[in-house]
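Supplementary notes for students who missed Thursday's class. We covered one full example, reproduced here. Read the sequence, then the structure, then the short commentary at the end.
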Amino acid sequence: MSARALFDSVASTGVLDTSKLFNVDGWVAVVTGGGTGLGLVTATALAENGARVYITGRRAEPLQAAVDEYKALKRGKGEILSVQSDVSTKEGILKLVEEVKLKEKWINVLVNNAGVSLPCADINACEQTAEGLSKQMFEGENFETWNDLYRINTASYHFTTFAFLPLLAAAKTVGNYPEPGNIVNISSMSGITKTSQKGQFNYNASKAATILLSHMQATEFARRGLGIRVNVVCPGYFPSGMTVINPEDNTGSESQFSEFRNKWGIPFGRPGNAVDYAQCIFGLISNQYVTGTELVIDGGWLLEAAF
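Structure (token representation):
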């Protein structure tokens, strides 16, 4: 088919209208860690555009606050519902799946977003010799912290994905959507950078593992003809519980630009915002021809760090 014929085949249908290109009206979504931070941004954006979104987390308070806040906004046709569960355990994952199955016959998108950043030893806060580094990094950390990070940041994505696989497949077989549900795993630019970011070996390694996990999931699902897409997002600095940024610091002023450019190392001179992130998520979940990819959204931080 020629480019012209391809254009003619869709021009008269209006499918290239943005309201159709990124249409999630009536979708069912699950967002782990959806009560705060970028998980809440994701849930809100989906709900405002007509999706029914189940958010989960270990603490009931932020989940209920998120639900109440969205109801108060009275925007969009969608809905946010909360399920308190701990996706770092099989019991918690099964509870989440069963709660969703009570109301839904399929889900269109699973966003594995739950994550933590735990203490690490500062590699710069010691004598920069073999002896000094050995003492700081060996005695200053423990296996338990590393295990906790991998359990939540990586292993929970594996088990949650496979637990929801039948509901994801059902979006096409039962819900009659053009494709099964798809998955977005949330990693970090820290999973790509070659620097430890002052000794953050544990967190960075867990996020790197999340990226490889996502590629393996996408590959194995494609090999088996499931049609379930898996992609991974690698955010940079966004306001969240792990990155404390005062909204007043993101004013676009010259001093603010210099602060984020020179101190934070962001060439664009600002942190990311909700619009940036929502645009990223909607592009991945709507495009039925993309799987196994990682999308970096960091304002150029990795480019700066490469020098």
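Commentary. Residues 237 and 243 are 7 Å apart (CA to CA). The first helix runs from residue 3 to 11. If anything here is unclear, bring it to office hours.
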